[in-house]
Amino acid sequence: MNLKRLIRLVATVICVYQLAQSIYKYFSRPTAVSEADVALSDLNQPPVVVICPKIKENSTALKDLGYRRSFSFFLGKPEGLPDNQYSWVGLDGSLTFDEAKKIIFSEEFEIDLTHHVKSSFFANETNTVNLSNIFIPLYGNCKMAKELDFKNNLGFLEISSTVSVEVFVIDPSLVTHFSIPQESFTGADIHLDIFEEEKEEAKPDAISATEENATTEKSNFIFIKSLLKGNYSNDLIEINTTVTEASSMELSKKIQKRSVGSKTKSSDLQYFKIKIKRRTLLPDEGCDTYRESSFAQCIQKELSQKLKPLFQCIPPWMTSNQNDICNGIVNNASTDGTDTQIRDVVFPLMMNNEVDWKCRRPCTTMTAIARKMYQKKLAPDETPSVRLVLDYTVKDTATVITFTGFDLVIDIGSSLGLWLGMSAVSLADDAINIFKWGSKHKLIK
User: Fold this and answer.
1) How many domains would you assign to the chain?
2) SS3 at position 359
3) Do the Cβ atoms of 138 and 350 come closer than 8 Å?
């Protein structure tokens, strides 16, 4: 009898121990990383192609509206305004934002994006892709292709343009009204260069508008590097002036050496291979699934919370809501009378850097890796283009929970089964004793 009770006790201890281990394992949420290959057509959100002109702004127009550089425009600080006033529509505040944007950033260019697919063994099909507009700080008016159909893996995307452009293949889940996630595009730079030359020889002291823009762009680059180091002071004006003067001398020398030529285009046809990688994290890892909203909507809501108390509105390049945009000249309601709070929000957004957001990044993100395949010289009368060949196989990496609620139920059943098995002998003996006791007291006939 003592042995039977000992067996039952041992079975009970083992069962309780296994149950405790299973419950602890379930709540500790053990994870593992799984890798698989999925088809590009199976992605809920295919990658987005964004095309931006290389010549971003008209430096003369910027100065006419009172802005020293494009940074000043996006910050809303034309020269001559008091420190506590801002304007994204020029110094006098008489324009609308769309009018100011059209004056500063060129819109007179054409971009064609076509999708070439093999519809049958002998025939090819060419579809024109619809492009939407997106206005991005430091890039200006860009074109974005969202509705790409990759059900047919035999094909490529072809981009042609009337101006030099840069191309990005990016993660759609991180696109906002005013920014693209450049960190989601790695590998080779994709650009289409269109060259034009004057028919007459230029004068030695003449600098074209394109070259002037290039000069300003170079000075902006130094300005950007200074901003990344946290330098927001007006001392950068001296740096800008020095660079502009030095660059002007270099450009003058180039013009003197430039030979007379007719209008020409780039003679290159470039092929790029695009490999897509998708990564899925768990919400425990600092991300959000955004089932009822999106990352872009969250950013818009948080921008409203950060900037409306200061301006009673939102800078017009940050929102599409016409009821929220700042019109004309606005005052900064900051109690300290400085624009420090504005810079802390606006500059990182312009630089596409991380901001101290409450909005968490989506749990599922993707990265596009570009590799240049080859470059082909074309005849002068042929149209240069960039062709993107997207790899149909996507490398999918996901963090998964290795012990789920279903596994917990299985473990509980196994533990109870072990307990019943080891206690079977003792339970049978108890049943016999209960039967004998009942028969003795005439409870069981």
Assistant:
1) 2
2) coil
3) yes
> For tokens 């007719």, what's the residue?
262
pLDDT at 74: 87
Question: Tokens 């390049």 sit at which residue?
Answer: 317
Does 444 reside within a domain? Answer: no
Distance CA 303, CA 307 (A): 6
Reading phi first (left if > 0) and then psi (alpha if -120 to 50, else beta), residue 8 is in alpha
Please indicate, yes or no, if residue 421 is contained in any of the structural domains: yes
What are phi and psi for residue 431, nearest 5 degrees? -65, -40
Q: Which residues contact 427 (CB under 8 A, 6 or more apart)?
A: 8, 420
Q: How many residues does the chain have?
A: 445
pLDDT class for 403, splitting at 50, 70, 90?
confident
Residue 275 lies in domain: 37-401
Question: Roughly how many angstroms between the first and final C-alpha of the chain, as a whole number?
Answer: 26
Q: What angle do CA 404, 406, 407 make, to 5 degrees?
A: 65
The first and second tokens of residue 338, run together, are: 């400085």
The two tokens of residue 268 are: 């290159």
**Cα 335 from Cα 61, distance rounded (Å):** 33
Query: Is the same domain home to 215 and 337?
Result: yes
Task: Please state, as a whole number, how many other Cβ atoms lie within 10 Å of the Cβ of residue 88.
Answer: 28
Residues 151 and 22 in one domain: no
User: Contact 107/142 with Cβ under 8 angstroms?
Assistant: no
User: Strands, DSSP E only, in 294-392?
Assistant: 329-331, 361-362, 364-377, 385-390
Pair of tokens at residue 410: 């299985």
| 129-133, 266-270, 323-327, 351-355: the lowest-pLDDT one | 351-355
**Residues 6+ positions from 221 with CB-CB distance below 8 Å:** none
Crossing angle of helices 2-28 and 424-440, rounded to 10°? 130
Q: Is 399 exposed, middle or buried (0-12, 13-18, 19+ CB in 10 A)?
A: middle
DSSP state of 318: G
Pairing of strands 268-280, 385-390: parallel
pLDDT number for residue 232: 38
**Mean pLDDT across the chain:** 76
d(CA 49, CA 41): 16
Same domain, residue pair 397 and 418:
no
pTM of the model: 0.72
Residue keyed to tokens 């016409």 = 322
Measured CA distances, 300 to 132, 179, 324 (Å): 20, 12, 11
The helix or strand, by DSSP H or E, that contains position 51, with its residue range, turns out to be strand 48-53
